[in-house]
Amino acid sequence: MRHGKKVIHLGRKTAHRKSMLANMACSLFEHKRINTTLTKAKALKQFVEPLITKSKSDTTHNRRLAFSSLRDKSAVSVLFREISAKVGDRPGGYTRVIKLGNRMGDNASMALIELVDFNELYNSEVKSKKKTRRRGSGKKTSNNIKTSKDKLENEKSSDKKDNKTSEPDSNLTDS
Protein backbone atom coordinates (compact mmCIF):
# COMPACT_ATOMS: atom_id res chain seq x y z
CA MET A 1 0.00 0.00 0.00
CA ARG A 2 1.14 3.55 -0.73
CA HIS A 3 -0.12 5.27 2.40
CA GLY A 4 1.63 8.63 2.86
CA LYS A 5 4.00 8.22 -0.11
CA LYS A 6 3.33 11.27 -2.26
CA VAL A 7 6.59 11.52 -4.21
CA ILE A 8 6.17 11.94 -7.96
CA HIS A 9 8.74 9.44 -9.24
CA LEU A 10 8.93 10.71 -12.88
CA GLY A 11 10.17 7.29 -14.04
CA ARG A 12 13.65 7.87 -12.61
CA LYS A 13 15.79 6.53 -9.80
CA THR A 14 16.06 8.65 -6.67
CA ALA A 15 19.48 10.18 -7.36
CA HIS A 16 18.58 11.10 -10.94
CA ARG A 17 15.26 12.61 -9.85
CA LYS A 18 16.88 14.72 -7.09
CA SER A 19 19.58 15.99 -9.47
CA MET A 20 17.04 16.83 -12.15
CA LEU A 21 14.78 18.73 -9.72
CA ALA A 22 17.77 20.61 -8.30
CA ASN A 23 18.85 21.67 -11.81
CA MET A 24 15.31 22.70 -12.74
CA ALA A 25 14.98 24.69 -9.50
CA CYS A 26 18.25 26.52 -10.21
CA SER A 27 16.99 27.38 -13.70
CA LEU A 28 13.67 28.56 -12.26
CA PHE A 29 15.42 30.83 -9.75
CA GLU A 30 17.72 32.22 -12.44
CA HIS A 31 15.16 32.82 -15.21
CA LYS A 32 12.01 33.20 -13.03
CA ARG A 33 10.04 30.91 -15.42
CA ILE A 34 10.72 27.74 -17.38
CA ASN A 35 8.86 25.49 -19.85
CA THR A 36 8.68 21.79 -19.01
CA THR A 37 6.21 18.92 -18.98
CA LEU A 38 3.21 19.17 -16.70
CA THR A 39 4.22 16.37 -14.33
CA LYS A 40 7.76 17.75 -13.97
CA ALA A 41 6.29 21.18 -13.23
CA LYS A 42 4.07 19.74 -10.51
CA ALA A 43 7.00 17.84 -9.00
CA LEU A 44 9.16 20.98 -9.17
CA LYS A 45 6.47 22.97 -7.39
CA GLN A 46 6.57 20.53 -4.46
CA PHE A 47 10.38 20.78 -4.44
CA VAL A 48 10.66 24.58 -4.68
CA GLU A 49 7.91 25.87 -2.37
CA PRO A 50 9.52 24.68 0.91
CA LEU A 51 12.86 26.16 -0.20
CA ILE A 52 11.27 29.56 -0.78
CA THR A 53 9.58 29.37 2.60
CA LYS A 54 12.96 28.66 4.21
CA SER A 55 14.49 31.63 2.39
CA LYS A 56 12.17 34.05 4.19
CA SER A 57 14.35 33.82 7.29
CA ASP A 58 17.96 34.33 6.24
CA THR A 59 19.92 32.19 8.67
CA THR A 60 23.04 30.13 8.16
CA HIS A 61 21.12 26.93 8.85
CA ASN A 62 18.46 27.73 6.23
CA ARG A 63 21.14 28.61 3.68
CA ARG A 64 22.85 25.27 4.31
CA LEU A 65 19.56 23.39 3.97
CA ALA A 66 18.88 25.15 0.66
CA PHE A 67 22.40 24.45 -0.57
CA SER A 68 22.12 20.76 0.33
CA SER A 69 19.13 20.37 -1.96
CA LEU A 70 20.13 22.84 -4.74
CA ARG A 71 23.91 22.26 -4.84
CA ASP A 72 24.54 25.65 -6.50
CA LYS A 73 25.90 28.71 -4.69
CA SER A 74 24.60 31.25 -7.19
CA ALA A 75 21.08 29.83 -7.06
CA VAL A 76 21.11 29.94 -3.25
CA SER A 77 22.27 33.56 -3.26
CA VAL A 78 19.55 34.55 -5.79
CA LEU A 79 16.99 32.72 -3.67
CA PHE A 80 17.94 34.47 -0.45
CA ARG A 81 18.53 37.94 -1.95
CA GLU A 82 16.01 38.58 -4.73
CA ILE A 83 13.25 36.03 -4.30
CA SER A 84 12.90 36.18 -0.51
CA ALA A 85 12.67 40.00 -0.68
CA LYS A 86 9.75 39.81 -3.13
CA VAL A 87 7.78 37.06 -1.38
CA GLY A 88 8.29 38.26 2.19
CA ASP A 89 4.62 39.00 2.89
CA ARG A 90 3.11 36.14 0.85
CA PRO A 91 1.89 33.23 3.02
CA GLY A 92 2.45 30.56 0.35
CA GLY A 93 1.75 29.75 -3.28
CA TYR A 94 4.98 31.15 -4.69
CA THR A 95 4.77 29.41 -8.06
CA ARG A 96 2.17 29.22 -10.81
CA VAL A 97 1.77 26.35 -13.31
CA ILE A 98 0.12 27.27 -16.62
CA LYS A 99 -0.78 24.54 -19.10
CA LEU A 100 0.48 25.20 -22.63
CA GLY A 101 -0.93 22.31 -24.65
CA ASN A 102 0.80 19.25 -26.10
CA ARG A 103 4.30 18.93 -27.53
CA MET A 104 4.53 18.19 -31.25
CA GLY A 105 6.96 15.27 -31.12
CA ASP A 106 5.51 12.97 -28.49
CA ASN A 107 2.21 14.67 -27.54
CA ALA A 108 3.38 15.26 -23.95
CA SER A 109 1.39 17.87 -22.05
CA MET A 110 3.57 20.97 -21.59
CA ALA A 111 3.40 23.65 -18.90
CA LEU A 112 5.02 26.91 -17.91
CA ILE A 113 6.06 27.20 -14.27
CA GLU A 114 6.87 30.67 -13.00
CA LEU A 115 7.43 32.58 -9.80
CA VAL A 116 4.23 34.50 -9.04
CA ASP A 117 5.72 37.78 -7.83
CA PHE A 118 8.02 38.19 -10.85
CA ASN A 119 5.28 38.34 -13.50
CA GLU A 120 4.67 42.02 -14.31
CA LEU A 121 1.51 41.37 -16.33
CA TYR A 122 -0.45 39.93 -13.41
CA ASN A 123 1.06 42.17 -10.73
CA SER A 124 0.48 45.53 -12.45
CA GLU A 125 -2.50 46.47 -10.27
CA VAL A 126 -1.99 48.09 -6.91
CA LYS A 127 -1.98 45.68 -4.01
CA SER A 128 -4.95 46.00 -1.70
CA LYS A 129 -4.81 45.76 2.06
CA LYS A 130 -4.46 42.36 3.63
CA LYS A 131 -7.76 40.77 4.45
CA THR A 132 -8.31 40.45 8.15
CA ARG A 133 -10.57 38.06 9.92
CA ARG A 134 -13.47 39.42 11.86
CA ARG A 135 -13.58 38.25 15.39
CA GLY A 136 -16.38 38.66 17.84
CA SER A 137 -20.13 38.56 17.61
CA GLY A 138 -20.33 40.87 14.62
CA LYS A 139 -23.20 42.87 16.13
CA LYS A 140 -23.02 46.64 16.01
CA THR A 141 -23.47 48.54 19.20
CA SER A 142 -25.70 51.57 19.41
CA ASN A 143 -22.64 53.88 19.55
CA ASN A 144 -21.29 52.49 16.27
CA ILE A 145 -24.65 52.99 14.57
CA LYS A 146 -24.85 56.60 15.76
CA THR A 147 -21.30 57.39 14.64
CA SER A 148 -21.88 55.85 11.21
CA LYS A 149 -25.05 57.96 10.77
CA ASP A 150 -23.09 61.07 11.75
CA LYS A 151 -20.39 60.23 9.20
CA LEU A 152 -22.97 59.83 6.44
CA GLU A 153 -24.55 63.19 7.28
CA ASN A 154 -21.13 64.88 7.28
CA GLU A 155 -20.31 63.38 3.88
CA LYS A 156 -23.62 64.56 2.41
CA SER A 157 -23.11 68.10 3.70
CA SER A 158 -19.54 68.21 2.35
CA ASP A 159 -20.79 66.98 -1.06
CA LYS A 160 -23.33 69.85 -1.16
CA LYS A 161 -20.58 72.36 -0.39
CA ASP A 162 -18.39 70.91 -3.17
CA ASN A 163 -21.24 71.16 -5.70
CA LYS A 164 -21.76 74.86 -4.91
CA THR A 165 -18.11 75.70 -5.44
CA SER A 166 -17.75 73.66 -8.62
CA GLU A 167 -20.43 75.58 -10.56
CA PRO A 168 -18.91 78.05 -13.06
CA ASP A 169 -19.63 81.75 -12.67
CA SER A 170 -21.87 83.22 -15.34
CA ASN A 171 -19.89 86.50 -15.24
CA LEU A 172 -16.73 84.86 -16.61
CA THR A 173 -18.19 83.69 -19.93
CA ASP A 174 -17.28 85.61 -23.10
CA SER A 175 -20.03 87.18 -25.14
Characterize the structure shown.
The chain is mostly helical. The longest helix has 25 residues, at 142-166. The mean pLDDT is 85. It has a 3-stranded antiparallel beta sheet. The chain has helices at residues 14-31, 38-55, 60-70, 73-86, 142-166, and strands at 33-37, 95-102, 109-115. The protein is built from 5 helices and 3 strands. It has a domain at 14-118: Alpha-Beta Complex (50s Ribosomal Protein L17, Chain: A). 49% of the residues lie in helices and 11% in strands.
CATH A-level architecture of the domain at 14-118: Alpha-Beta Complex
Uncertain runs with pLDDT below 50, 5 residues or more?
A: none
Tell me the number of strands: 3
User: What Rg do the Cα atoms give?
Assistant: 27 Å
The main sheet comes to: 3 strands, antiparallel
Number of helices: 5
Question: What is the CATH homologous superfamily assignment of the domain at 14-118?
Answer: Ribosomal protein L17
